[in-house]
Design brief:
- This protein has 245 residues and is mainly alpha-helical.
- 45% of the residues lie in helices and 0% in strands.
- It folds into two domains: 35 residues; 192 residues, Cytochrome Bc1 Complex, Chain D, domain 2, CATH 1.10.760.10.
- It has twelve helices and no strands.
- Bound molecules: heme C.
- The site of heme C has 22 residues, from helix 12.
Length: 245
């Protein structure tokens, strides 16, 4: 039996044993990454964010919404009764960094898309107590007053592309996206037309209720409205996703 003291007083032995322990820990964390393509389920409909939604996501991060809101519905009955189908790994595969969160001062937002109207979100973000009297959520009135700066949206998309998000820049990449997501979605993932697409989506949907301007509110509401809406769960058998758990 090796006594702890004899390990601690023998630097060589301590180093060797430390390395062994670290390698086991490393293997446990690293090896599964080589099988990630087999463990993340195949799901139709999940796509990267459009330029406008992406700017909304940046604002969500800037404002620290994740400090009070998770985006991860766990596979427990109480969770799916309240929030809907539990979150799939595939649903956050284009999120860098992911927004799973670890604190729920407010409700989970993974499937908040479509739950409320745009007007509700605008009113709620300007002053939550106008629509939910007991709310303790802070006010974010400046979102409605601040013009959205999207001058660097192409760079933001390029940065995400480096992490594996399939935004396109070349004709070949565009074609790959058309094959995978269809022409309409592929056009929105095109970095070269990002600014045009962003303006077009904001003006067509008028998320913030102000026709003439594109504000940070437009972007944030566009983002909130797409959360959890990409996968059509009626297409899958009830037990399908449990295979991957
Ligand atoms: C201090 C904690 C806190 C922060 C920060 C916060 N929220 Fe909330 N949020 C809440 C609470 C509590 C509720 C529940 C009461 C309500 O609806 O206002 C809530 C509710 C919501 C809802 C409605 C969810 C539902 O299903 O009814 C949305 C959407 C939302 N928050 C978005 C945001 C966004 C976007 C941000 C960042 C700009 C944010 N929240 C920041 C605490 C917070």
């Amino acid at each position: 039996m090796i006594k702890h003291e004899s390990i601690e007083t023998n630097a060589g032995l301590l180093i060797i044993l430390t390395l062994i322990v670290i390698s086991i820990g490393g293997l446990v964390e690293i090896v599964p990454l080589f099988f990630i393509n087999e463990t993340v389920e195949e799901v139709e409909g999940v796509r990267p964010y459009s330029a406008l939604e992406l700017r909304g996501r940046d604002i969500y991060q800037r404002e620290g919404c994740y400090l009070c809101h998770s985006q991860m519905i766990r596979p427990f009955r109480d969770e799916w009764l309240r929030y809907g189908h539990y979150s799939l790994a595939a649903e956050s595969k284009y999120d860098h960094p992911f927004q799973w969160g670890s604190k729920r001062t407010g409700p989970d937002l993974a499937r908040v898309g479509g739950k409320y109207s745009n007007e509700w979100h605008v009113a709620h973000l300007v002053n939550p107590r106008d629509v939910v009297p007991q709310s303790i959520m802070p006010n974010y009135p400046w979102l409605l007053e601040t013009e959205l700066d999207f001058s660097d949206v192409q760079d933001r998309m390029r940065a995400l592309k480096k992490t594996g998000v399939p935004y396109s820049e070349t004709q070949r990449e565009l074609q790959r996206n058309i094959d995978e997501f269809g022409a309409e979605v592929a056009a929105r993932l095109d970095i070269l037309h990002a600014e045009e697409n962003l303006m077009q989506q904001a003006l067509a949907n008028n998320y913030d209720g102000q026709r003439a301007r594109i504000t940070e509110m437009d972007a944030l509401v566009a983002y909130l409205q797409v959360l959890g809406t990409m996968v059509d769960f009626s297409k899958y058998d009830e037990g399908y996703f449990t295979e991957f758990r």
